[in-house]
Amino acid sequence: MYKLLENLRAGRVSHGMLGKGGVNLVQHLASAGHEFLIVDMMHSNVDWTELSHVAWKARAVGMYPFVRLPANPWGAGAAVPDRRFPVDAERAFGAGIEGLIWSISSVEEARLMAHMGRDSHQGAPVTSAQEMSDATEHSGSTRLLLPLIESLGALEALDDILAIDGISGVFIGCTDLAEVLGHPLDYLHPEVLAAVEKACKLAKTRGKIVLANTGYAFPSIEGQVAHAKALKKCGVNMLMLQTIEFNLYVIAKSVSDAVRAG
Q: In this predicted structure, what is the pLDDT of residue 139?
């Protein structure tokens, strides 16, 4: 059904992007060869209606739809597990989303969501025991639950998080990872890459997957490609090639600068 799932089962790396909305962009990403899309509800004004439009469009063109749920794993209240995650997850499934990404600060915040891998909600009516069984089976074969590791608390508990039954793997947020390790925006710093590589090795031993992003410190296509290649060398399974909006900025600025230069 999804090329992303085929790639994961075959050991091939998949590419995708994160976007802050825009159903009309889905077809363009699919045509460009991307296998997944992450709809950002953490740093955008995307509402549940727009999320649903994007999710169902992505499903229609065979692109795997994730959502990044709202979270704040860094503030004074980070030590308190966010009980809102399962509630938002149910709404996301009802909107047509397949995969979940949520930024965590503890093992507990990952464990809160582990049962969602077989949740039957899909935004479609269930009117019989057979339809319920089919919906649950579909969820069990398609759901990807990837807690986002971008805080020290989550990084230190990485192995315990990966050990949770029902968690598919982790998303290593390279921008905030570099920051908490003391190397802001220095994604290629040996310590940062070593942390990504360690995550990949731990995930592999547990049969889990790792998603990582290319970050904002590369205002050129070449810079992103170099970081993507470094991440692939670390062993990541899925590459998020930064956000749609950031790549639009990079391209628009490159064209504008070249035109002004004559």
A: 77
User: How far is the C-alpha of 176 from the C-alpha of 184, rounded, in Å?
Assistant: 8
Q: What's at 37, amino acid-wise?
A: L
Q: Half-sphere exposure of residue 77, counting CA atoms within 13 Å on the CB side?
A: 5
What string of DSSP letters covers 94-156? HTT--EEEEEESSHHHHHTTGGGGG----SS---SHHHHHHHHHHHHHH--EEEEE-SHHHHH
Q: Which tokens sit at 1? A: 């059904």
Task: List CB contacts of 204: < 8 A, sequence separation 6 or more.
Answer: 235
Residue range 223-244: average pLDDT? 94
Name the fold adopted by 3-260: TIM Barrel (3.20.20)
Domain residue ranges of the chain, discontinuous segments joined by +: 3-260
Reported as a pLDDT band with limits 50, 70 and 90, residue 198 is very high
Nearest in space to 113 (alpha carbons), one of 82, 134, 142, 137: 82
- Helix H or strand E segment including 228: helix 221-234
Where does residue 226 rank: exposed (0-12), middle (13-18), buried (19+ CB within 10 A)? Answer: middle
Each residue of 68-114: pLDDT tens digit?
999 888 775 667 788 889 999 999 999 999 999 999 988 999 999 99
